[in-house]
Design brief:
mainly alpha, 83% helix
Length: 110
Amino acid sequence: PTLQTVENLVGLWRKEWGSECMWNATFDGLLECARVKGKDATTIFFEECGRHIAEGRCLLESVHEVVHTLCVCCRERLKGDTVLLYDLLICIMSQVTFFEVKLDIMLSLD
């Protein structure tokens, strides 16, 4: 994939929950809504979180592939895109880590 393709995929994947300081409240609110709907809805919510993590890990692999390209021209172009690469990595890692930690906590409580 190209860096622009990965950037588009990240845009589609990322949760638009505002700043990171709001993620806990948003997650907790969505989890509570699922719990009110019942066990099946709660299970689906956790499965969706797991899918988000898995998709994020795939995106990280895509970034890895972009960076480790054999195309000399592409590598030269990446030098100018280091800020974009950094922003994509921070976005993906922040959400993957957040969801992994939340799922670990929630599943250990159940």
